[in-house]
């Protein structure tokens, strides 16, 4: 996938940190992305002996604002309604593990890229924050965050990188696998990926 080549873009997956009810969508994104940058830029945290602590802080930041259940449901699209409550619960858990762990390493590749917030658009309970990433070589990439208001705070349910939606990308992959091989095949693949990620 195109955006896999740009590690800094995975900071988009780290919208974690404290969520404030009165914060605007942009303020929420900026404050939490700043927290992730702080973690990956901390010299003490970069030491090998602190790897586990660093990963835990990153996962905490990532999980604080991402609505994994919403992302999982949108990624499954029409196939979601066919799942039992137990299946939905397991799928959300596997999806969360996939996102949290797959991109922790990418986020750690942060190399002083600059994030510029362009504008935000609010439409009722939904919002989009547009930004761009400028690398040290002055290359630029668009990075947009889609959020929805739940419980008085903004939660991220999608990230669009260079016009590519994370949720839409997964939706296409999941749909193809379910249609061609069945839901059990998707579950098996996600379980395998989860174990692979957890392995040292």
TrEMBL record:
Superkingdom, natural source: Bacteria
Keywords of the record: Signal
InterPro entries found in the cross-reference section: MlaC/ttg2D, Tgt2/MlaC_sf
Signal peptide range: 1-23
Pfam families: MlaC (PF05494)
Gene3D superfamilies: Tgt2/MlaC
Protein's UniProt name: ABC transporter substrate-binding protein
Taxonomic lineage from the root: Bacteria, Pseudomonadati, Thermodesulfobacteriota, Desulfuromonadia, Geobacterales
């Amino acid at each position: 996938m195109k955006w896999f080549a740009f590690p800094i873009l995975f900071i988009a997956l780290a919208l974690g940190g404290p969520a404030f009810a009165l914060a605007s969508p942009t303020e929420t994104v900026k404050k939490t992305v700043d927290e992730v940058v702080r973690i990956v830029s901390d010299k003490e945290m970069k030491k090998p002996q602190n790897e586990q602590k660093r990963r835990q802080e990153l996962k905490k930041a990532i999980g604080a604002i991402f609505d994994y259940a919403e992302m999982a449901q949108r990624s499954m699209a029409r196939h979601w309604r066919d799942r039992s409550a137990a299946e939905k619960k397991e799928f959300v858990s596997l999806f969360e593990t996939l996102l949290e762990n797959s991109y922790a390493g990418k986020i750690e590749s942060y190399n002083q890229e600059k994030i510029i917030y362009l504008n935000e658009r609010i439409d009722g309970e939904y919002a989009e924050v547009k930004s761009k990433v400028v690398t040290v070589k002055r290359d630029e990439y668009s990075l947009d965050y889609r959020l929805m208001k739940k419980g008085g705070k903004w939660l991220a349910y999608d990230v669009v990188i260079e016009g590519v939606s994370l949720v839409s990308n997964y939706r296409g992959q999941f749909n193809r696998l379910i249609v061609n091989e069945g839901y059990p095949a998707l579950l098996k693949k996600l379980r395998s990926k989860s174990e692979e990620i957890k392995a040292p």
